[in-house]
Amino acid sequence: MPRLLPIYIRWLWKPGFPETEDELRQVWFMNQGLSPSSFADYCPELLKTAADFKYLKWPYKVRRHVKGRHVVDLGCGRGLHGLGYLLMGARSYTGLDPIVDLDLDAFKDTRIARVNNMKPIGWTPRKISERVKRLKYLKGEIAELPETAKWDVLVMHQVTEHLMEIEAVFEHFPRILKPGGKLVFRHPNYYSWGGHHMLPRFLRDIRPEDPEQRRYMDWAHLVYDPNWPDTILKEQNRIRLHELRKVVEKDFVIEEWNPAVSSEEEGGGRLTPEILARHPEFTREELLTQSVIVVARLKEAASR
To answer: What does the alpha-carbon distance between residue 261 and residue 289 come to, in Å, rounded to a whole number?
Structure first.
């Protein structure tokens, strides 16, 4: 154990998160301990794949909320965040998604753009669940979870904007959380420069000659168009930040509400007085908020 300490301390103080096989091994055993279950669940191949596919950044960011806790991940998709949560010290991880194929070897490589980024890794969600006993993938809806299913922390990473009946989904959270349980999520703001999820998402995507881009660019997507593609109309709820806050506060006490301002590359520098004047219902702050990270605690009266 003493030999592990120097690398662990360097990792805690340096920006970023563990990436090399040596760092991953050190951090795994420092956070998971030296128990038989820790050794049994340690899989360097899967941890390195999660690191290579850039699935450790978000668990690292929220590590103090998941360490030592049982975590359920709503809308886990075909991702590897679960390995990151365990690496950060979670006691167990359950990923829930209605469309995940438990026997398909295809995982999202987040280093690649939105299209054609699914890659085989030699594992399926079912095989990962069998190999790492404290990591489970479940296919289904939150409403289908049994009454006895309880977790300490519910996490969502870029999921809330896709919940078309978001209030109905949030109503299930008190049922699956233990008393005093936490809700931790990142919400991308539809009303940011690239929040429409179409092109251009970043300045590097801009093609001035493309008429399709002009439908969305420079906050043109603030004006509703019934002819928008399903990507907007059927896959994004377009909830505003104050509306989201109200949904959360129904059953939770917000402990952290951390907005991230759009960078130059994310269009933050393109907001002009003319655009603001055309949309007086929005504040400058709302249009420049790229995303918000929320940490909330379940109200005592909401526990079931």
So the answer is: 5
Q: Is residue 163 part of a domain?
A: yes
Closest CA to 152 of 59, 248, 67: 67
- Does 11 reside within a domain? no
Domain that holds residue 279: 49-302
Whether residue 37 lies inside any domain: the answer is no
Domain count, the chain: 1
Please report whether residue 13 resides in a domain: no
For 165, half-sphere exposure in the C-beta direction (CA atoms, 13 angstrom radius) is 7
Residue 219 CB contacts under 8 Å (≥ 6 apart), including other chains: 191, 193, 271, 275, 279, 287
**CATH number where 142 lies:** 3.40.50.150
Residue pLDDT tens, the chain, 304 long: 445 555 555 555 454 578 899 999 999 999 999 999 999 999 999 999 999 999 999 999 999 999 999 999 999 999 999 999 999 999 999 999 999 999 999 999 998 766 678 999 999 999 999 999 999 999 999 999 998 999 999 999 999 999 999 999 999 999 999 999 999 999 999 999 999 999 999 999 999 999 999 999 999 999 999 999 999 999 999 999 999 999 999 999 999 999 999 999 999 999 999 999 999 999 999 999 999 999 999 999 888 7
Q: Distance between CA 142 and CA 146 in Å, rounded? A: 9
The residue among 92, 91, 188, 89 whose CA lies nearest residue 138 is 92
